Amino acid sequence: MSDPFTSALVIANPASGTYPPGAAETVRRRLADAGLAAALALTEHPGHARALAAGALTPGGPDLVVAVGGDGTAHEVACGLLTDADTGTTAGSGPGPLPHSGRSPALLTLPTGTGNSFHREIWADLPWRASLERAATAPHVRAIDLARVAENGVPAVLGASTGVVAQSLVTARGIAEAGRDRYEKAVAAALHAFTPYPGRVLVDGEVVQQGPTVFVDVGGGRYRGGRFRLLPHSVMDDGLLDVCVVGTALPLRDLPALARDGSHVGREGVVYARGRSVVVERTDGRPLVFECDGDVLAPARERFTLDVLPGALRVVGPPPGGH
Ligand SMILES: Nc1ncnc2c1ncn2[C@@H]1O[C@H](COP(=O)(O)OP(=O)(O)OP(=O)(O)O)[C@@H](O)[C@H]1O
């Protein structure tokens, strides 16, 4: 059991895909009933959640930050909670001031987004009210690994991908469907129009795959798009990144069904590896479509490097074996 929290900041994104009106105030009130000094802030624009979370890193600030939203909100809040020391960034102003506990606040995610993959990872899809109840009555904090994109210093809670997975996230923007069905449709549409690219992947300096590539996923979280278990063996606190590379031996049309339960791994042309540093490249001189926690990175490059940040983020979840 972790120490109980004394104060909380609830950061809620009312623009997240399945946000129930009034959810943020319900969360704030439940935490107040549990004896926490609980404040609430609604996000007003992209990037706001990050700024609000960074603003919580003050002496006497909250020891719990609750992100009410989807994976984009979880990503922004996590970024705000990380100091330069956490991310290994040297260009910034150094570690920010921390709350009274002397360490960064813990993050609780409550899922009101579209994919909600991060919440699925941590809470096994427990509905948000039930997760809130558990967190309010028996909080358990664990430190999880993140991935950091070396080229821009951006950390990822879920991970990063190329190829048809990254393309699906772009395609999803034009699909009106609510919830995980949006990503399901986006994957089908992206697969329909997809051409594999010539790629190479290095893990800790060793080439693990080279050739026609359908996607690379690095993380992080086991799930992407809420439903697809792309990294079925990933463990969030083993100090390593998992990487899955899918080549062209598998028929594209079979991929969604296989990826739903992770059974693409072990099939012909699928490479699964683990390490501290992963380089993904496109080898024909053209830019790689590359996304990190749902954001497609620009400017596009031919090569990206992901390094593990072991135990960089403290998250609230159920006790081990306690889903
Ligand atoms: N008030 C706002 N108006 C418009 N967009 C906002 C607002 N506040 C936050 N955002 C942006 O909304 C985007 C979507 O949020 P989020 O990712 O949490 O939900 P989602 O896309 O429905 O879920 P998921 O990422 O799990 O699929 C984020 O990129 C965030 O920056």
Q: What compounds sit in this structure? A: adenosine-5'-triphosphate
Which parts are unreliable, with pLDDT below 50 for 5 consecutive residues or more?
91-96
CATH fold-level name of the largest domain: Tumour Suppressor Smad4
* Helical stretch tally: 9
Let me know the largest β-sheet: 6 strands, antiparallel
Named at the architecture level, the CATH assignment of the largest domain is Sandwich
Domains counted in the coordinates: how many?
A: 2
Which strands sit side by side, in order, in the main sheet? 6-5-18-15-8-9
Distance between the termini: 15 Å
Please state roughly what percent of the residues sit in beta strands, choosing from under 5%, 5-15%, 15-25%, 25-35%, 35-45% or over 45%. Answer: 25-35%
